Amino acid sequence: MPYFGSEEMVKELKRALSNPHVQSDRLRYKNYITKVIRYMTQGLDVSSLFMDMVKASATVDIVQKKLVYLYMCTYASDKPDLALLAINTLRKDCADPNPMVRGLALRNMCNFRMPGMTEYIEQPIVAALRDKASYVRRVAVLGCAKMHSLQPNTEIDGRIVNELYALLRDPDPVVVVNCLRALEEILKDEGGVVINKPIAHHLLNRMKELDSWAQSEVLNFLLRYHPRSDDELFDILSLLDSFLQSSHAHVVVSTLRLFLHLASAHRAVQADALLRTSAPLLATCSAVSRELRFAGLCHVQQVMRSQPGLFATHYKRFFCGYSEPSYIKFRKMEILVELVNDENVSLVLEELRSYCTDVSPELAQAAIAAIGRIARTYSEKCLDILTGLLALKQDHITSAVIQTFRDLVWFCPQSTAAVCQTVEAGVDRPQDSEGKQALLWLLGAHGDQMGSAPYVMEGYIDGLKTELSSTVKMELLTATVKMFLCRPAETQDMLGRLLHYCIEEESDVCVRDRALLYYRLLQRGAEETRRVVTGPKSDPSMSVLTGRQEEPISEWASTFNTLGPLAGRDSCPQTDAISAADQPSYSAGEELLPGSEDVTLSGPGDTEEEISLSLGAPLSHESFEKMWLDLEILHRQALGVSRPRTAPDTLQASLQLEKIQTLAFTPADTVPWKAYIYTRSTGTLILAELLQGATDESLVLSVKQQPVNQHAIRRFVSVLKSVLQTLNLE
Amino acid sequence: MIHSLFLINTSGDLFLEKHWKSVISRSVCDYFFEAREKAVEPDNVPPVIPTPHHYLITIYREKIFFVSVIQTEVPPLFVIEFLHRVAETFQDYFGECSETTIKDNVVIVYELLEEMLDNGFPLATESNILKELIRPPTILRSMVNTITGSSNVGETLPTGQLSSIPWRRAGVKYTNNEAYFDVVEEIDAILDKSGTTVFAEIQGVIDACVKLSGMPDLTLSFMNPRLLDDVSFHPCVRYKRWESERVISFIPPDGNFQLMSYHISAQNLVAIPIYVKQNISFFETGSSGRLDITVGPKQTMGKTVECLVVTIHMPKVVLSANLNATQGTYNYDPVTKILLWDIGKLNPQKLPNLKGSLSLLSGAPKPEENPSLNIDLKIQQLAISGLKVNRLDMYGEKYKPFKGVKYVTKAGKFQVRT
């Protein structure tokens, strides 16, 4: 109960409503009814007044009627027996000469959500479907759907369904759309309303008469229709053409979705539609309403997945205003990162630089991360900015910069030297655990390039007792062991102290286990430890030669104009990449796996027929390059298949399934197209290059191997061929 | 589509709910309150909140959250635009859309919501059709109603819905036939420290008030239609004629409506009407700062800049401001940290200047970011893009209408960085 003493209030109202003096004074009576409604809307339980309210429904005053109906709709399901009393009045109103009263009564009668209503409302609804006032027909059509929802499990009344299909030809546009809506609900279990050719063309021809909401809905219904021929398709598209420029953003977006769907086989039409809607979409991005702006940005983001160039010249429209809400700023930053090119990079960076000092720490961190993403292509400029930010000596900024450094080193090995120099030159210690972990990872992975690294680490080891986060402790363990492997003399003592503390005094089991693992590993010797602990220093699955892929439109067209992208449920590729960057922090345990797999596979693999491929430990770009240059080509052949037309990701994934790792490939549309792949088998390493001279030409495979094993090569070629053939079939 | 609607004020009170299908418990709003708490500022509440069984789509307007509950997949823009339409309708009916007016007119609010949606689907949303179904409250009418006891519900059905042109009712009659058009342009711009334009665009609309008898067919043409490349029209405009001849030909709805809206974003076309010379600095020691702002006209095409207001969101450490304005009044609110300088008319002979010192919280570090300036202004009788209406012709009716065009330029999101 939100109000104290509400029972008193209800009693008082009851007394007043049943007072004959009040009942005879229409104004006072109505005022009391209004009061009841007001309490009801505030969440007060006034259901005990039901009887008195039913009495009040017998009046000529429409407003009073409306109020009583509203009351009854709210409480009818609680008091079904009493509500039946009101039905008589309502049925009488359904025959009123004023269409407004008829519609009102019918609508409210349908809104009573209580069992057993159907027998009372069926007859008035069927009669009202033929009413001469369109207002009543509109209500009746939706009433059919409501009636069905009262008894969801009964059989569908074929008579009503037919009637509704017939009403699709009604002269009133709202009746037409309501028919669609009602049929959709009634036929939900059967897959919704069926849009066949006559219905589709009928709807298309009447599009202009509909209001914008109806247009948008009809466009969604039309997604179900598949034109028989190209001629028909283009007829439909030209009818819809003008809706791409509608003044309502939701109509534009729905039209665009229908275009993308219908023209899925015509790339040029899709591209043209995207180009034409880019202006309205951009306009939505700067609408007055911030929610519309947000929705516009989300849609732009989706379009950019296939056509990154479309908005490149408008990058300034994605600069954040000072007073914009943070959810808009986040999206704008994500878009800005995608729009960076050689011409605008300095302006965009300058802009992002100014967001880094935002009052909100989350925004500042997002801006820093955005600069980090740009740094993968334009390292130098970004590193200058990031280094400059460190001078501000703000905790959250420092922490974010160091995390960005870590991700950058992981994705973009060529910036390692510069990052190490900056970190070495003096970085404040970040205070939050995320930042600490990032710094420790950097120290551990690239300690050999930083003279002062052991001393920074020592500071952490000395402060171990006050450290609360167990993930930081684990990271510290891994980093110290890695450091020990490259600079044993300086690290030995502190590693000893660290292991001693973690094994003897640490209460967290995970940390203690990790310490014990390292302790035993070290007992087996430095070489063994190195094999397990030192993972790759950069992302092995990444392809340096490619920028961001242009995805085919079909990838996102199905979720376009739906709630998913706005609610952040659709998994965007960036988050995947970042989680990959977190991986090395926990690598110690997992990296045991590939090694041991190697051991088991190399045993029985000697027999000729059972040669199998394995992934083994990932190969870094540098070592691949070195080996490729050192080795001779052992085998070259034309595979007789052309490059699969699938997305590069699919190719990479399917090769990986067959234990062939992809190192790098050129963007999809470059000529000649190249890909570098490698795999392991029975103790040999196979490196290979796939080359396609011109489009649709057969792929040429060149293989290098160390040590030589012709059986393995034969096996490799046959596996590769079958993968490519399967992909081409799809 | 839209299952339920909840109205919630900034302090978190749920003051109105409406269900178009079965009743959904208020507890669904807990997800909203959770997001609201996380967002700190009411502005920052995300518009789409996923919950296990529903989606909540929220708009925040005039200090009220309109929270709609969605159960099936819908186009998000559709719902957002619809909620804005609801808010606009309230504004249209009650003069303003605030918690007090909604509570005062709760009966009409329910009537409106009932007509606007049925079973969760939009039904009647055009203002002129709604106004025939439910008459808006006026002082005179509520007085008449009190005396006679009559209601403000239309006795007859709106006829407009039955004519072949859905946006216009048949048989309109006026004694004075008049058509007015307002060209309203808003400049959205970001200027950087040195005064160069980082970003600028014009958002323009043409609002019309047409009170003409019968079925008039109007044609509006511009002196320079080439200016407009990104336009969208009211459904009444014949798009084909615009494409081929660049004239706007239409049968107007009755009363007030928005004829078209357009954007001009080519940088060289957007004139910036004023310049701002500013110097805001905080000293390393002594916990104080200086502020010196001068505003002057730049490209105003000889018109006067009016209603000039400069708003600055000061950093949190600024305690008070001791300033001197040569024109207008200034006011610093130490709670919201907003410095508001209301200048009024801009006199090109004597430029307004605001100068003085700021005192900061002692001991606090100096703010690393200078606040940016938000500018509000208005220029009468000028469309800053240079758009000009050439002529308005009427066909189909015999009488001579009275015609008028008005131009206004305003600042939209106009921001100067320091």
From TrEMBL, chain A:
Pfam families on file: Adaptin_N, B2-adapt-app_C
Any single biological process term in GO: vesicle-mediated transport
GO cellular component: clathrin adaptor complex; endomembrane system
Topology in membrane: Peripheral membrane protein
Keywords: Membrane, Protein transport, Transport
Annotated family: Belongs to the adaptor complexes large subunit family.
UniProt cross-references to PANTHER family, sorted A to Z: ADAPTOR COMPLEX SUBUNIT BETA FAMILY MEMBER
Stated name of the protein: AP complex subunit beta
Organism classification: Eukaryota, Metazoa, Chordata, Craniata, Vertebrata
Gene: ap4b1
TrEMBL record, chain B:
Entry's localization field: Golgi apparatus; Cytoplasmic vesicle membrane
Xref: SUPFAM superfamilies: Second domain of Mu2 adaptin subunit (ap50) of ap2 adaptor, SNARE-like
Record family assignment: Belongs to the adaptor complexes medium subunit family.
Gene Ontology cellular component annotations, sorted alphabetically: clathrin adaptor complex; cytoplasmic vesicle membrane; Golgi apparatus
Keyword Transport: yes
Domain of life assignment: Eukaryota
Membrane-topology annotation of the record: Peripheral membrane protein
Chief place where the protein resides: Golgi
Function text: Part of the AP-3 complex, an adaptor-related complex which is not clathrin-associated. The complex is associated with the Golgi region as well as more peripheral structures. It facilitates the budding of vesicles from the Golgi membrane and may be directly involved in trafficking to lysosomes.
Name of the protein in its database record: AP-3 complex subunit mu-1
Pfam family, one: Clat_adaptor_s
